[in-house]
Amino acid sequence: MRILKANWYPPENEELARLFGSSVDFDIDPTPTSPDYRLAGERSAAADALINCSATLPVPADLDDFARVKIVVREGVGYDNLDLEGWGARGIPVCNVPDYGTTEVADHAIALMLALTRGTETYDRLLNSDPANGWSFSRAPLVRRLRGATFGVVGLGRIGLAAARRAAAFDMRVVFYDPHLSNGVELATGYERVHSLHELMSISDVLSVHAPLSAETHGFIDAGAFAAAKPGLILINTARGPIVNLDDLTEALRDGRVAGAGLDVLPKEPADRSHPLIAAWGAREAWIDGRLVLSPHAAFYSPASMKDMQRKAVECILAYLNEGRLTNCVNRQFLKTPLRKAS
Q: Quick check: is 297 catalytic?
């Protein structure tokens, strides 16, 4: 069995070969950019399964390529960079790995919140630049008490629920908006539920985004949402960059409706220095100083989560090709031909 891992990025998990032995031949793309998969047709034609390692770079579902591929796996949670309908039209299931970094992303969301509300990033930077004059507790602009504050969650899935549990441990009031969850989830979790984004914006002191990127959520948090926000809102996004309209966030930060933002993801990655918000942050302009914290789409990462992600992607493939057992399929509605059955 040959698995092509495209859009690869380090570190490589050397345990994969040991775990799966000689039954799996890994063809690992050595570059972190979208390659020419064809290579005169050799690589794509030889692959029995395809893994896309990147969260942003696409792999096309060209009809002339990947003739032997029977399953495609996004090595991660998000799958918006894969052509679900195109692969489905070929009868090829697309799957993801939703359960490898749940705790890391939830931890990171809380860490971004704390960096702003406890001023840790600002204090460290000021002390580093001037240890004497930076020795001041009042220089971080967004320090506040979290106990009793409202933590709003957009999307109470695996990661959203994990983040909510962590916020509750800080004695925060947890409120969520998720139109895709059935009635009664609020009773099972003990968290409050609202039925519109604007209502959630209006009561949240901290808003944490944990929704997948889709046609429904693209640009979901926009000028209208920010207009409804409770004054002093802090926005945290560890989901997908395009869910938040960055231009509208810039204006909301400028006019003070939004107090601060912690962003692990951006609409364009790496960060686009030409965007006014990123440029102002980079120049440490007074109006944004201490109010914006960025990280490089790293919320998912820990050495342990990377190993889990890579292992689980291969396990998903083996379960399907060896047993006919399909897990975490995200394009069932587009599959046009019957799935393969275990022999």
A: yes
Would residue 240 show up in a list of annotated catalytic residues for this protein?
Answer: yes
The catalytically annotated residue of 43, 108, 257, 297 is 297
User: Block means of pLDDT (10 residues each) for the chain, length 343 residues?
Assistant: 80 68 72 55 84 85 82 93 92 95 97 98 95 94 98 98 98 98 96 98 98 94 98 98 98 97 96 97 96 97 92 94 95 78 46
CA distance 328 to 340: 16
Distance (Å, whole) CA 14 – CA 228: 49
The reply to whether 2-98+303-334 and 102-290 are identical in fold is: yes
Domain boundaries, the chain: 2-98+303-334, 102-290
Q: What is the pTM of this model?
A: 0.88
DSSP state of 82: B
pLDDT of residue 278: 98
SS3 string, 140-181, reads CCCCCCCCCCEEEEECCCHHHHHHHHHHHHCCCEEEEECCCC
> According to the model, what pLDDT value does residue 275 have?
98
Q: Which of 74, 90, 193, 240 is catalytic?
A: 240
Active-site residue flag, 193: no
Catalytic residue among 15, 269, 285, 323: 269
Residues in the chain: 343
Q: How far apart are CA 119 and CA 304, in angstroms?
A: 28
- When the candidates are 3.40.140.10, 3.40.50.2300, 3.40.50.720, 3.10.250.10, the CATH number that belongs to 2-98+303-334 is 3.40.50.720
Residue 302 has a pLDDT of 94
Which CATH number among 3.40.50.1100, 3.40.309.10, 3.40.50.720, 3.40.50.2300 corresponds to the domain 102-290?
Answer: 3.40.50.720
Residue 205's CB is within 10 A of a number of other CB atoms, namely: 22
